[in-house]
Design brief:
The protein has helices at 3-14, 20-32, 34-51, 60-76, 92-110, 114-133. It has 134 residues and is mainly α. The chain folds into two domains: 3-51, no CATH class; 88-133, no CATH class. It starts with a helix and ends with a helix. Residues 3-36 form the Putative zinc-finger domain.
């Protein structure tokens, strides 16, 4: 097995949660790989150190206060419409083109020289047709 897979299995191996086949594979890998065996020894040492800490008794009052925190936050949460779909990378080019078209249309309709734009567009179209006819 590769070290990445063994690293995923070290915690279940330490807790004795693996089936015999996986347990044997991890044990044989730990005998040959110094890096993984060092990691396993550090994990085991950490587990033993944490086991030495005394377990604290928590008062019922504190537990009730802690469990009530999420429900309080839900009451005050303001529900806004979800516009997450607008920031999807696949929609960004479409939104960019739509913005550019909207700006161009607004310049055309609300600009002071609409007639000169019409003449310029008409002239360009006629030039294009004459080039195609040749």
């Amino acid at each position: 097995m590769k070290c990445e897979r063994i690293e995923e299995l070290l915690s279940p191996y330490l807790e004795d949660e693996l089936n015999p086949e996986e347990k044997g594979a991890v044990a044989s890998h730990l005998k040959t790989c110094k890096k993984c065996s060092l990691l396993f020894s550090l994990m085991k040492e950490t587990q033993e150190s944490l086991a030495d800490f005394p377990e604290l008794e928590v008062s019922e009052n504190l537990l009730d206060r802690l469990y009530s925190i999420p429900s309080k936050k839900k009451k005050f949460k303001l529900r806004l419409p979800n516009f997450d779909f607008l920031v999807r990378p696949s929609l960004q080019p479409v939104l960019t083109v739509a913005t550019i078209v909207l700006i161009m249309v607004s310049f055309y309709f609300f600009g002071p020289n609409k007639s000169s734009i019409d003449k310029s567009i008409s002239h360009k179209i006629h030039l294009g047709y004459s080039e195609i006819e040749r």
